[in-house]
């Protein structure tokens, strides 16, 4: 296909499986299956979209090894329903999401709906479930009627295997639709992940220092593609739903030459979009961006983020292991050409966000994230098996132990401290956190997130409203190697 033809097709939004479709919400998408051969290998694809109907989305997900094309390589990965990323699930407040999950892997797994405010009990968003190889499990998640709209995601959460399975390709996006959506020319889901493949396209082994640092894959993907291209006309408004699905890599995003506003982060939508030139996403974070297109070619780029190192603790730096010393990476090319589009309609005001600063606090606690040399600290590696230990309040994860008990109906204030030389992005399941202050600086305006970065040797204060459901679940570092190494605690809310 000549570049010109490809560009024309891109401008028409017709690249893909020849199956560009307009969904109920006027959404534009193409199937990821077969799109690469028909549409030219550079056009950005959208994962398959599964949308709830009459309040229900019922689907089967199989986690299994599969072969996909990544860049120029045939790769052996693990994915949901043979697609990397897995299908995008679109639901609304009040919906029931049912997932019949099958484990086609050789290791135990399970499913977590990251960020959804749903019950953690039984066959809900229960992180203690283990689905053995060959077995299945039927999940059912019931979203409250007033569930915050936004971009969420799903991934396995079987302790000890989380980083490996996500690094292998097991993730997908969840969209909770906004009852009063912002008019846009099109939406794009952008699932950013990273992966390391050897010359024959196989997943590589991860070394103990890489696990301790938190592995960063060599190749950064958007929807499973290497630096794909998207096209738009000038004067359009697009909504980009960006998910950081990397096990450990932080993203620091810029998009030169385009109007960029943040519509939402992690949970819900801001009352008004905020202009931004750059945005940082810790692993697990999402951001919703409004892109006001301007003629020209722009690049969505991620710059390195300094998230600390083990240098001092390891008795010397591990060359090549320090994140933050690499070059910026081009993620996506946006080509804006053609006749200018008409003015998009105004952005409807979002509803005011709840502000827990005005609410009484029922309990306060301090939770400390630490890295310890373990017994002896021999050779700087420490601990049995050469692993440093990753702890919360001095303890490694134990599924049987309950670390925190909170009461349904109370607001708590948590001070999250980090006594280690690396950042730890803290994630709490089920109940979102309002960030109160970061390193003693107050945060202005209510900011709701479900992953909050605790800087090295720093601290963050958050408030949480434990409401709508009780149950037992977890909080952990979303550098998933750290989580697998023990940096996770349990909480029982009753
Ligand atoms: Cu995205 Cu407990 O995880
Ligand atoms: Cu989660
Ligand atoms: Cu960590």
TrEMBL record:
Signal peptide: none annotated. Pfam families: Cu-oxidase, Cu-oxidase_2, Cu-oxidase_3. It comes from the Bacteria. PROSITE patterns: MULTICOPPER_OXIDASE2, TAT. Residues 309-322 have a biased composition (Gly residues). Residues 301-326 are annotated as: Disordered. GO terms for molecular function: copper ion binding; oxidoreductase activity. This is Copper oxidase. It comes from Nesterenkonia jeotgali.
């Amino acid at each position: 296909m000549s570049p010109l033809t490809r560009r024309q097709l891109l401008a028409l939004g017709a690249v893909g499986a020849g199956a560009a479709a307009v969904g109920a919400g006027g959404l534009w998408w193409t199937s990821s299956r077969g799109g690469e051969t028909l549409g030219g290998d550079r056009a950005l694809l959208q994962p398959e979209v599964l949308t709830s109907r009459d309040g229900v989305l019922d689907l089967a997900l199989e986690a299994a090894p599969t072969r996909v094309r990544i860049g120029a390589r045939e790769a052996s990965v693990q994915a949901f329903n043979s697609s990397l990323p897995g299908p995008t699930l679109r639901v609304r407040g009040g919906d029931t999401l049912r997932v019949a999950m099958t484990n086609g892997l050789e290791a135990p797994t399970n499913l977590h709906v990251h960020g959804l405010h749903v019950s953690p009990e039984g066959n809900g968003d229960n992180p203690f479930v283990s689905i053995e190889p060959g077995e299945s499990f039927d999940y059912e998640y019931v979203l409250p009627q007033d569930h915050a709209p936004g971009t969420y995601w799903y991934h396995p959460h079987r302790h000890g295997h989380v980083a490996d399975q996500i690094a292998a390709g097991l993730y997908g996006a969840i969209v909770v639709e906004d009852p009063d959506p912002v008019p846009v020319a099109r939406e794009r889901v952008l699932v950013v992940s990273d992966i390391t493949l050897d010359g024959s396209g196989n997943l590589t082994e991860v070394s103990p220092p890489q696990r301790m640092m938190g592995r960063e894959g060599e190749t950064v993907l958007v929807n499973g593609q290497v630096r794909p291209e998207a096209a738009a006309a000038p004067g359009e408004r697009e909504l980009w739903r960006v998910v950081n699905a990397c096990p450990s890599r932080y993203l620091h995003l810029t998009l030169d030459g385009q109007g960029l506003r943040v519509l939402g982060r992690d949970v819900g939508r801001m009352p008004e979009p905020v202009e931004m030139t750059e945005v940082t996403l810790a692993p697990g974070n999402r951001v919703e961006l409004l892109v006001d297109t301007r003629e020209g070619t722009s690049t969505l780029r991620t710059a390195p983020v300094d998230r600390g190192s083990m240098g001092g603790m390891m008795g010397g730096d591990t060359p090549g292991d320090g994140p933050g010393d690499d070059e910026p990476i081009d993620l996506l090319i946006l080509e804006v050409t053609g006749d200018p589009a008409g003015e998009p309609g105004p952005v409807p005001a979002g509803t005011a966000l709840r502000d827990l600063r005005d609410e009484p606090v029922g309990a306060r606690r301090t939770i400390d994230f630490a890295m310890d040399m373990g017994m002896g600290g021999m050779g700087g590696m420490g601990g049995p098996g050469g692993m440093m230990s990753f702890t919360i309040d001095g303890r490694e994860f134990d599924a049987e132990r309950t670390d925190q008990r909170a009461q349904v109906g109370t607001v708590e204030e948590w001070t999250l401290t980090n006594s280690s030389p690396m950042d730890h992005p803290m994630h709490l399941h089920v109940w979102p956190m309002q960030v109160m202050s970061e390193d003693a600086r107050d945060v202005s305006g209510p900011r709701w997130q479900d992953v909050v970065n605790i800087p090295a040797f720093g601290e963050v204060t958050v408030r949480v409203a434990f409401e709508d459901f009780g149950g037992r679940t977890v909080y952990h570092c979303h550098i998933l190697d750290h989580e697998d190494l023990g940096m996770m605690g349990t909480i029982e809310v009753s």
